[in-house]
Design a protein that fits this description.
Elements (H helix, E strand, L loop, with lengths): L8 H10 L3 H6 L1 H5 L6 H13 L3 H11 L7 H12 L5 H10 L3 H7 L6 H24 L13 H46 L9 H6 L12 H9 L14 E3 L6 E3 L13 H4 L8 E2 L5 E2 L19
Antiparallel strand pairs: 1-2, 3-4
Length: about 325
């Protein structure tokens, strides 16, 4: 008994000889009866390959002329042709050879399809199963020339299938084109709307989109914007309408949307009152406008400003 784990050349040679039948032994009897002193396994295996394997010329000849569909499925024939070609032939050429061996009704259906070769083989199998019986009857009645009235009913069926496949292909292409066009138009419209919204300023009020929508909670501002100036002018009575263009330097608090004047030389900074501040009692400290109008003050406010710098300011 030989072990299943055959490692040495001598063991592999003995196992190979033990598994050869009588007919095969007749082709290598000279080696078995008088084995060489070395490389016995290699010599025997090469003789078997030479005797029983097809040459490249024989494979190509069988691929081009000998292989026929017969009673096999179209996919089985394609598999055999691929094995013989051994990856040396391109799919287009192999598909042409394979289609030549298909019945006319299958060729009619497959000619309208652009599917890969393997999927064409699956379609051919299904068509062959559906119309196999009718195709056999047509082939058996070719002894006498058939009249037009008694011709096989398979051809109209195949023509109908071919038309349906072609119509489906056109519909799929049209739907794909419409979907891509609709997606492009929707994307372009969204971009134009976003661009217009972010840059538009209400000409009647002079307030940008962000302050018009988010009021005091706006974190962005598009210049020119009169939102901050409008709040200040509603508190300080008697002051002139603020200029929309000024050479003074302001910094914007991104948290509240308020603008603060930089390096004005003032002693205090006036902050417009909020609804919560209006409920607080007035302070004893008062301000006066240029026309001597009294401006009520409520309290001192501690604010944390986000000026877009590295740290917040108190």
């Amino acid at each position: 008994m030989h072990s299943h784990s055959v490692v040495s050349p001598v063991s592999k040679y003995s196992a190979l000889v033990a598994n050869l039948d009588a007919e095969t032994l007749s082709y290598v009897s000279d080696i078995v009866l008088s084995p060489p002193n070395s490389d016995k396994y290699h010599t025997l295996s090469q003789r078997l390959i030479t005797q029983f394997s097809d040459s490249e010329t024989q494979k190509i000849k069988k691929l081009l002329t000998d292989l026929q569909l017969g009673d096999e499925k179209p996919s089985h024939l394609l598999r055999k042709m691929k094995e013989l070609s051994n990856g040396q032939l391109q799919d287009d050429f192999l598909q042409s050879l394979w289609l030549q061996r298909m019945p006319p009704h299958i060729q009619t259906v497959l000619s309208a399809s652009s599917e890969p070769l393997d999927k064409l083989a699956i379609i051919a199998d299904k068509v062959s199963e559906v119309v196999g019986a009718s195709s056999t009857i047509c082939a058996a009645t070719t002894v006498s020339p058939p009249s037009q009235s008694s011709s096989c009913s398979v051809q109209p069926t195949m023509d109908s299938l071919a038309r349906q496949i072609q119509e489906l292909s056109i519909q799929v292409a049209e739907l794909t084109r419409e979907r891509n066009s609709s997606r492009h138009q929707r994307y372009s419209s969204d971009r134009r709307r976003s661009h217009s919204r972010s840059r538009s300023v209400n000409k009647g009020s002079g307030i940008c989109y962000y302050h018009r929508r988010y009021k005091e909670q706006a974190r962005k501002c598009v210049s020119p914007c009169a939102f901050v100036q409008k709040r200040v002018s509603s508190v300080i009575a008697g002051m002139a309408e603020p200029l929309k263009h000024t050479s003074r330097l302001f910094l914007l608090d991104r948290k509240s949307g308020q603008k603060f004047l930089i390096d004005s030389g003032s002693e205090i900074c006036v902050i417009p009152p909020s609804p919560t501040m209006n409920k607080s009692p007035q302070s004893n400290f008062s301000l006066y406008a240029a026309n001597n109008t009294k401006i009520p003050a409520y309290s001192m406010v501690r604010k944390e400003l986000n000026l877009g710098l590295r740290r917040p300011f108190i």
